[in-house]
Write a structure and sequence with these properties.
The chain has 119 residues and is of the alpha+beta class. The chain has two helices and four strands. Strand 1 and strand 2 form a beta hairpin.
Length: 119
C-alpha cells in the first residue's frame, strides 16, 4: 500500500522492510497483474518488480508469512506457483543470464520467495 504523500519507491522499501526486514532498491518493474477470485468475482491487483537486497537479514512479519527460502536460478524443482509467476521468474532468469554472461559468465544470483500469506 502506498501511503498519502509517499512515493512508489519509498512504499516498496518500507513494505519490504516491514514484512521481511530487508533494505531493498527496485531495479525494474516487471509487470502489472490481476488475480481473479471466483467467489464474489473479486479481483486483486498487483505489481511484480525485481529488486536488490542491499542490507539486512530476513526477519519475517509472522502475522503475514510463515516461512521463506532462497532458490537458485534457474529453478529446477517443482514449486506450487501463484498463477503466472513461474513464467515471470523464467523470463527474468533468462534476462539476468544474458546480462551477466558477457562480463563474468556468472550464473544468476538466488531469488527469494515468501510463502504462507498475502498482504
Amino acid at each position: 500500500m502506498v501511503r498519502t504523500g509517499e512515493g512508489f519507491d519509498a512504499a516498496i522499501r518500507r513494505q519490504m522492510f516491514e514484512e521481511f526486514g530487508l533494505k531493498i532498491e527496485r531495479v525494474k518493474t516487471v509487470e502489472i497483474y490481476e488475480i481473479h477470485i471466483p467467489r464474489g468475482q473479486r479481483v486483486i491487483p498487483g505489481i511484480r518488480f525485481l529488486c536488490v537486497a542491499n542490507d539486512g537479514k530476513v526477519r519475517l512479519n509472522r502475522r503475514e508469512f510463515s516461512s521463506y527460502r532462497w532458490i537458485d536460478l534457474p529453478i529446477r524443482e517443482h514449486l506450487d506457483w501463484i498463477p503466472g509467476l513461474k513464467e515471470v521468474v523464467d523470463g527474468l532468469t533468462e534476462e539476468l543470464a544474458r546480462a551477466s554472461a558477457p562480463a563474468t559468465n556468472a550464473p544468476p544470483r538466488a531469488i527469494g520467495f515468501q510463502t504462507g500469506g498475502m498482504s
